[in-house]
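Practice problem: predict the structure.
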Amino acid sequence: MNRAIVAATLLALGPVALSSGAAYAQSPDNDEGLYLGGGVGQFDIEIDGLDGVDEAIGRLDDSDTAWQAFVGWRINPYIALQAAYIDYGRPEDDISTSGSSGNYRAELSGFAPSIIGTLPLGPVELSAKIGYYFYDLEITANIDDPLAPDFDSNDSGEDLMYGFGVGMTFFERLHAKLEYEKIDLDRVDDSNAFWLTGAWRF
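Answer:
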């Protein structure tokens, strides 16, 4: 599945890169170079059952505020390389069933290098991103039952991430973007984020 996503994204970026000469003059004063930025968003995580956790906890589904800081280099108006530190927060919730109760929490943060393809459409820019997320993930579940042991899992790894966005540049330098992002984490059934980011293009 990951290979199919990578192939589809690269095929989508190919025509964009080839068409760079035709639209290069749209922003002659600010079409390449360094940019710095950050963003805030909402991270959603879904875990449908964990090995070693009490059977009363069948599904963990919650969200939290996320933030990121990034630096990038625009090779041209259509291709950029970016490195980001992303903290997806600490989604947590109480668990209450007829048999057990308690709480759970997931903590996720890490480093994400990526390539971004952009299609300028006048003042609006459409973008697609693909990269890898090198992360630390800790999942804890505390059960208020002396017969059910607490669960604590620490995991480090790297997995594919990709996203799509729409943005607009103000004052020729400040680029604001709304973005949807998907992270294919091994231990998690579903994880995604919605972002509002801002970047200053030097």
